[in-house]
Amino acid sequence: ADSRTSSGNYVANKVADKITKVCDKVYLCRSGSAAHTQAVAGYANLYLNQHAIELGEKGVCVRSAANIVKEIAYTNKQWMNAGMIVAGWDKNEGGQVFVVPMGGTLMEVPFAVGGSGSIYINAFVDKNWKPKMTKSECKAFVRKAVSLAISRDGSSGGVIRTVTVDKDEQVKEFLP
Predict the structure, then answer these.
(1) pLDDT band at residue 141, thresholds of 50, 70 and 90?
(2) Cβ of 81: how many Cβ atoms within 10 Å?
(3) N or C terminus of the chain: which is more exposed, having fewer CB within 10 Å?
(4) Has residue 8 got a pLDDT over 80?
(5) Are 119 and 80 in contact (CB under 8 A)?
């Protein structure tokens, strides 16, 4: 994710963190209205952590997290301006990616791009994404895609943030 938050032509924050942890090993990548996506992330975090306590587990499955985000987005679709990507790792299904575009639809996908800069990188993504990439190939692919979006989109910018999640670790990194 990039880190620019803007309000029209005004850059409100150059180093916003648009990747939010909603529960253990599950993250939400936010685009659209910062206030709306922060509210969704906050409610999702609350509901998912309560659910984990009820289950007696440290976290919940990625699919459950994606469904909670979808329900919040769909229930509030008439006023919410938010597109989100929910991704992570769980012991039942491994790594998963879900996209919740504006309107609250839920789709499981092999990868996802979103936000204003995504329209500038579709050809790059179509040409360079491939299944079964190594962790280092994935990181290089994502960093290149976000840097291309930043270079073309006036509403994208700042630093590049990434999160890598697998069964052993959750690593959050950024590139200036």
Answers:
(1) very high
(2) 13
(3) C
(4) no
(5) no
